[in-house]
Write a structure and sequence with these properties.
By secondary structure, this protein is mainly beta. The chain has a domain at 24-34 and 54-71 and 97-195: Porin (Beta Barrel). 10% of the residues lie in helices and 69% in strands. An 8-stranded antiparallel barrel has the order 1-2-3-4-5-6-7-10. A hairpin with a 2-residue loop joins strand 4 and strand 5 (112-123). It starts with a helix and ends with a strand. The model is unreliable at 3-12 and 178-185 (pLDDT under 50).
Amino acid sequence: MKLFYKVLVLAVSAFALSQTASAQVYIGGSLSMASVRQDKVQNEKTTCTDIYSFAPEVGYLYKDNWAFGGRLSFAYASAESFYGYSVESSEKKSAFALVPYTAYRALSFGDFSVWAEGALSIIPAQDDVDGSLGLSIAPVLSYTLGDHFILRTELNFAGFSLSRNFDKEVTTFGFAAGGDNILKVGDITIGAVYRF
């Protein structure tokens, strides 16, 4: 409990300091959708999965080059297996995650910016979802629309990730740097931010 209070005092102090040092508070969020189809030719079975996610966020921009914030991500997935034209099985899952992050503006040209974002993904154990902890670094593109609105997209097809599933005791490492499926909807997340 002492650690919680120390972290809380540190967070409040950092927030107060940033308010006096040209920080800007922002709120926003992103939506994501993916649809995946897997065909198995041998037994004529097809699996279709739809995944939807919504992630509201809040944070602050410090000296126009650093962003600190957090997201509460909600996801819903439904999968149906078909044998021919009839549904053989259906499964639905939902989960949430807490994702604190920090981002650094690496490049800026006009209203466009390229950010390097590091995020810690905390997924608590839920009904049908294993608990896990993940760390990722990925590029983010942003476009400023006036003084208050920013459009942003997370490019999930490039970056580094490390995660630990505590229920199954499995650690995974990933590195992606490819543009083969650059237009695949599930690898791109689009969001908007409003700066106060």
